[in-house]
Design goal:
alpha+beta, Nucleotidyltransferase, domain 5, five-stranded mixed beta sheet, globular
């Protein structure tokens, strides 16, 4: 399946929404959800290059914009620092 073929015109009600972050100079950030239909959906790619203040701000903005349930941080690359930066 090509990437564009996976797009949907309407999204279902979500059981859970998560902002996932792989911190670093080039931070990978996505908002993803589990639909009531049991399928996973990527709602937005918020990846950004920049300082910890830049990417953590992007994470928090995405969390509030999508009314996410939680933030998941990849722990192998400064996980404790990332959690501290996001909570600050």
């Amino acid at each position: 399946m090509l990437l564009g073929q996976g797009r949907v015109s309407q999204v279902p009600t979500f059981r859970r929404l998560v902002v996932g972050v792989d911190p670093g100079g080039d931070a990978g950030i996505v908002v993803a959800g589990l639909g009531d239909d049991g399928h996973g959906y990527v709602l937005e790619d918020l990846s950004v290059s920049g300082s910890p203040a830049t990417w953590s701000g992007q994470v928090v903005s995405g969390y509030h914009k999508h009314k996410a349930n939680l933030i998941a941080v990849e722990a192998n690359h400064g996980g404790d620092m990332a959690l501290s930066t996001i909570t600050t």
